[in-house]
Amino acid sequence: MNRRNFLKTVGISGISLFAMPLVSSFATTKIQLGNKIIRSISDGHLQLPMSFVYPDIEKNLLEKILTNNGLATNFLKPECNLTLLEDGEKRILFDAGAGANFMASAGKLFTSLEDKAISLDSITDVIFTHGHPDHIWGIVDDFDEISFPNAKLHFPRVEWDFWRADDTFSKVGEERKTFVIGARNRLEIMEERIVLFNVGDEVLPGIEVVGTAGHTPGHCSFAIHHGSQSLMVIGDAITNHIISFSKPDWPTGSDQDTELGAKTRKMLLERLATDKMQIIGYHLPNGGVGHVERKAQAFQFIQ
Ligand SMILES: [Zn+2]
């Protein structure tokens, strides 16, 4: 029995199958860019031990900056914010959330979409930033079917090759081995609907692929253009609203290549501050929408 047969049998909609009435969704932010309506949609949040996020930063220094900014020193609880773009013809999601099997505090996307009366079968395209669990595990449902039955799936080619390569499992550290197995299982199910793209491509009209490798080998961001206005979906290229901006050089354990991650972050912050682009950050607070300004020798996130 697959998901659709099951739904037919029990006579309920795909959405209500996933509804979890006790879970509330987070704030949503809406931006208008010409005929495009862009919204941030919550998938809940993660709970990450500080030893994973900033293992290489001196404890006192790290705790001082966290405490000064009202953040806990043992765990970070970053939001997970997908981007939904509607232009009257297409309904495009950026990333697919964590699904039911990654972390109890994440995987709330289906509830958030239901709250906004957006059905899963109305999603025409899903564009992925990278292959981490909180971004792709939600693409496959409990019946091993694609969660969005009519969507075309756009995936970065470098990222696709990385997660599927024979030697990736042996090359990554212990803490990332489940990421590899999880990505492989999902990518196999996604394969028949996949369209691969490269940095510099226009993945769909008005959506330019910006290479932001470091967090993962093929991580991509997306500049959405309309006339002189633009917005960038930055995925996980910039992850913490305080430290990534004020200390962009600091290595973070959430980047697979910490050195390249820092280099990319600085390059991206420079561009975003110069171009005065709005951004949606997957793990930034209050829906993740804001912009970047220069501050002292570094940057700050403005909402
Ligand atoms: Zn992430």
What does this structure look like?
The structure is a single chain. Strand 15 and strand 16 (298-302) form a beta hairpin. The protein starts with a helix and ends with a strand. The strands form three sheets. Strands 1-2-5-6-7-8-9 form a seven-stranded mixed β-sheet. The protein is α+β, with helices and mostly antiparallel strands and 303 residues long. Helices cover 28% and strands 27% of the residues. The protein has one domain: 4-Layer Sandwich (Metallo-beta-lactamase, Chain A), CATH 3.60.15. The protein contains eleven helices and 16 strands. The structure holds zinc ion (ZN). Zinc ion (ZN) is lined by residues 132, 134-135, 236, 282-283.
Short description:
This protein is α+β, with helices and mostly antiparallel strands and 303 residues long. It has helices spanning 3-10, 14-18, 50-53, 59-68, 109-115, 133-136, 157-164, 168-171, 177-190, 243-246, 258-275; strands spanning 29-33, 36-45, 48-49, 75-76, 79-86, 91-94, 125-127, 152-156, 194-197, 202-204, 207-211, 220-226, 229-235, 278-281, 289-295, 298-302.
